Amino acid sequence: MTRAEESLERLLASRADGEPGFLAAHRAEGAATFRRLKLPTTRHEDWRFTSLAGLSQLELRRALPAGMPAAADLPPAPRIVFVNGRHDPALSDLAGLPAGAVVQSLADALARTPELVEPWLGRRVPTSDHAFAGLNAALFEDGAFVVLPEGARAERPIHLVHLASGAAGAAMHPRHVIVAAPGARAEIAELYAGDDGAYLVNALTEVYAAPGAEIAHYRLQREGAGAFHVGLLEVEQGRASRFRGHSLAVGAQLARVESRALLAAEQADCALEGLYLANGTQLHDHLVLVDHASPHTTSRELFKGVLDDKGHGVFAGRIRVRPGAQKIDAAQSSSNLLLSDDAVADAKPQLEIDADDVKCSHGGTVGQLDPNALFYLRSRGVDELTARALLTYAFAAELVERMGPADLRDRVRRLVASRLAGGAALLEAA
After folding, report:
1. Could you please report the per-residue DSSP string of 328-396?
2. How confident is the model at residue 193 (pLDDT cuts 50, 70, 90)?
3. Which of the four pLDDT bands, split at 50, 70 and 90, describes residue 185?
4. Among 255, 257, 254, 266, which Cα is nearest to 217's?
5. Model confidence over 76-104: pLDDT tens digits?
6. How many whole angstroms separate alpha carbon 170 and alpha carbon 197?
7. CB 295 within 8 A of CB 327
8. Distance in angstroms (rounded) separating the CA atoms of residues 337 and 278
């Protein structure tokens, strides 16, 4: 076993007993899965471009309680905040929730009303064949439990905030469960941030959208420069439901996010989008699996990467159409912009189609800045640094502008611009 696996095994062995039976069983299955599979390597097909060699050398421990990092920027209410994997009531503010909505600590919900959590926790999670999902099931301490009642309309985004503070050497496993009843509508934003130091965040989010529900989900990852971030988003959609998933990744030395959507009933509509910016030696990896299990369903995937220095971007997308799932409309697109000769982009699009009356497509591009456009800006008196920043931001803007709520979109604009050489000029001009 690697050093990280040995330390994680000690954490697994130290888990306390006395939890509800369904949760104990969930944890036991997860622990058994991780012990069997261990950390994935590049010999695993879904990890062929992403090495966890750096993570495997860490001695990981349980995160200690801490206060808010000095650099943290809390979003407006409603928000529920977790520091080092534990709910922080003092930093949370749930004002502005729709009537009847529940947003609470998952640990509190499991302790006080486990019968409300049981039907949902782990319902769609691949605990038996996914090492990190198994590890999360076995070791999660807290997260958000969100329930939107029938017909609820959230007027403001609901923020789920995870902060890592003084967490060098720590392993954290946030777990979020989001349930939207028929006709409910909400925007939910997960925000991940942390300070310097090597630590692991292994986050798992489950979303259940009942018939007619509409959920827009935003994920902003800006972990500390030494962090390892692994995320799994599991979505199950009912009839005529709509799900919009948007991912922004700028932080961590290695970040891997998987998004899995099951379109379980007719007229379900799903869109998954992502923007990642990697420089230095950062690696950002996105794996997207969309399962069309019912006819008359629609999906769209659009991912873009901006890669500089020795940055490495990975996108793997898989669209599955099950037997009998006719009249499917699915499209997948991946584009990468390389800003240096040492940047690397890998893409692996896949279609698995077992029906004959479908419309499915995929495509991808890898390129550099257009020299003609760069020359045009230079000829108009724009210095080279600013010109490159303008063209790079224009490439990313399509996804930036889809970050729905105005305050969240402004946050994303500033975050993206701050990551570009010459981006300060863009912020001043905005």
Report:
1. EEEEEEEEEEE-STT-EEEEEEEEEE--SSEEEEEEEEEE---HHHHHHHHHTT--HHHHHHHHHHHHH
2. very high
3. very high
4. 257
5. 999 999 999 999 999 999 999 999 999 99
6. 9
7. yes
8. 11
Determine which helix (DSSP H) or strand (DSSP E) holds 114, and give its type and residue range: helix 114-117
Confidence of residue 70 (pLDDT cuts 50, 70, 90): low
pTM of the model: 0.96
- Where are the domains positioned within the chain? 3-265, 370-430
Q: Which residues lie across from 358 on neighbouring strands?
A: 328
The dihedrals phi and psi of 4, each to the nearest 5 degrees, come to -65, -40
The Cα 2–Cα 267 span in angstroms is 46
CA distances for 5 relative to 48, 51, 130, 184, 230, angstroms:
20, 15, 15, 41, 15
Rounded CA gap, 286 and 169, in Å? Answer: 24
259/272 Cα distance (integer angstroms): 8
**Cis before 78? omega within 30:** yes
CA distances from 356 to 9, 47, 295, 406 (A): 47, 31, 11, 42
| Range 93-108 burial, b when 16+ CB lie within 10 A, else e | beeebbeebbbbbbbe
